[in-house]
Amino acid sequence: MKKNIGSIDRLIRVIAGVVIIGLGFMFQSWWGAVGAVPLFTALVGWCPPYAMLGFSTCKVTEEKT
Q: Of 3, 5, 23, 42, which residue is 20 to 30 A from 62 by alpha carbon distance?
């Protein structure tokens, strides 16, 4: 899997995931489990919908050999 999530995108996903999980606990709702999705994609650095659409926010330069 080629990384397709950049650093700012990753930070936003971590914050969103933590907020969603926190709200799930606060309102005692299982919907807080949805927060695991942005956290997981941020940790892995790869987003399936981005890959399907050919979209990337990751600015990795490839070295030429």
A: 42
